[in-house]
């Protein structure tokens, strides 16, 4: 393989991240997470953009220092082009483009969701092609057949909301602070799934979480009307019940995808792949169904630049460079 030192930059939402990868081996991976959004109950795009402006230079500098590299040693710069928050993307992408121009090296535009899938190639064990990947995050829920490093086909996606949004919105209904997903996961381990919530009836490999959120809202309204302490008294069981239903929806579709394609190399990716219940459900399927499963390291589940650098490395090998007038896109197309 062609030798290359890639700087990866990620700024699609509220994490400013930079990583350095040399010949496919990760040398550094730095993430600066923003904490200001918790008070607002969600990410405020303007606040996120301003924070990226403050953090991006120190984060890139630290990534280079930890890797023991000078910017003049870089072969290319890979940066998230989208999808994501436009203001946040603009900060990272324009910085990367300007640095690449000043160093006279290629700029590589990376699709954020592609990068999540390729996080599986940062460390061993690595899946073999073709494999199915369930990508689940706050903004996306997709089933993919991954034919090669740069060739992926969507075979299923959500008709409305994403799984991560279902976690966060449900948590808000329960009075949990943002982000609610990790808190639901923690509380669910202390409870039991004693409350029933419906599974959306949508065709084939498509997902839907809008109706589930509505059913949870109506259930809580009904119960708290007669018992104001219902949520606080049953919080752990409510979290366990909500988490079990979301995971059941995901796993049922994933199982159907395996049946339809005959592919038993199965991976998960994205922020929600950090959920302990989902990880355990996949391990159980590996045992009962004979799947060869791949679960990313926790630091590669959430937004990070290592996955961007990994994608950038494979694109560099194919000389798949971005045009000098390329721009970030909040709704970047899959291919």
Which helices and strands appear, and what pairs or packs with what?
Blueprint: E1 5-10, E2 15-22, E3 25-33, H1 45-67, E4 76-82, H2 86-103, E5 107-111, H3 112-118, E6 131-136, E7 141-148, E8 151-157, H4 163-173, H5 181-188, H6 210-226, H7 230-233, H8 235-261, E9 265-269, H9 276-289, E10 292-294, H10 306-317
Parallel strand pairs: 1-4, 4-5, 6-9, 9-10
Antiparallel strand pairs: 1-2, 2-3, 6-7, 7-8
Helix pairs in contact: 1-2, 3-10, 4-6, 4-8, 5-8, 8-9
> Within the CATH hierarchy, at the fold level, what is the topology of the largest domain?
Nucleotidyltransferase, domain 5
User: Would you count the extended β strands for me?
Assistant: 10
* Category from helices, strands and their pairing: alpha/beta
| Largest sheet, strands/sense/barrel | 5 strands, mixed
Global morphology: globular
Tell me the series of helices and strands, N- to C-terminal: EEEHEHEHEEEHHHHHEHEH
In terms of quaternary structure, the protein is single chain
> Alpha-carbon distance between the termini?
25 Å
How many independent structural domains?
2
Q: What is the name of the CATH superfamily of the largest domain?
A: ATPase, nucleotide binding domain
CATH uppermost class of the largest domain: Alpha Beta
Detail the poorly predicted runs.
none
Proportion of residues in helical segments: 40-55%
Percent of sequence in beta strands: 15-25%
Tally the helices: 10
Provide the residue-averaged pLDDT.
Answer: 95
Q: How big is the Rg?
A: 20 Å
